[in-house]
Amino acid sequence: MKTPLPEDNGLWVRRFHPRPDARVRLVCLPHAGGSASFYFPVSRSMPDDIEVLCVQYPGRQDRRDEPLLDSVPALADRVCEALLPWTDRPLALFGHSMGASLAYEIARRLERERGITLAALFASGRRAPSVHREETVHLRDDDGLVAEMRGLSGTDPQLLGDEEVLRMILPAIRADYRAAETYAWVPGPPLSCPVTCLVGDDDPKVTVPEAAAWSEHTEGPFTLEVFPGGHFFLARHQPEIIRLMTSRLEAPAPR
Length: 255
Fold this sequence. Notes:
This protein has helices at residues 9-12, 40-45, 72-83, 98-114, 142-152, 157-160, 163-182, 208-212, 233-236, 238-250, and strands at residues 13-14, 24-29, 50-55, 91-96, 120-124, 195-200, 222-227. With 255 residues, the chain is of the alpha/beta class.
């Protein structure tokens, strides 16, 4: 029987293109500072048998006035709870940057606490959970935080030039950066699901070897896909990435 939707499920999970007959659901988790709408084009472009659910974190857009969550484990607990009603069919996760760390922690919780093994985990633009970097962007002043976002080219320049909008969004962005940069992997059993890691060959936030270390975090099939580009390579290669995910969700990934 399908788990009833919690009262706040509509806040966390956005279903832009309902596909009630889909055989698998792909949950998309945004990067630091990102929102569910970032994945609207992915939701629109997926074939009819794959339904896309997009996660909306507190503190942005229609959730702007809600308390912020600034740790990956806290976010994982809440998102995992919100996803339980959608597990009546196979579930896959896609996360970019901070979203990849979050996807991993959600996958761990689903396996360990609920006995649910994902159809696939797609980790994009993020080093493996066990690979640590000392990062302190969340401790910079507002100008330093904006400079980091400009350098990664993942935010609309017009938005970054609007002082009023910046004042509204910077607290959420800082909380996300704090979550991403203070995330500390706790050793435990590897996942059972297939893992595909996607990385840009010129990404300043993760090297190809750091991405390849995701192979240590699953007993299932692992593949590494390297694309030309920087941290937001996925914007340039969206059609190719959609085809890749579609094919991986149609058949088991190769060992």
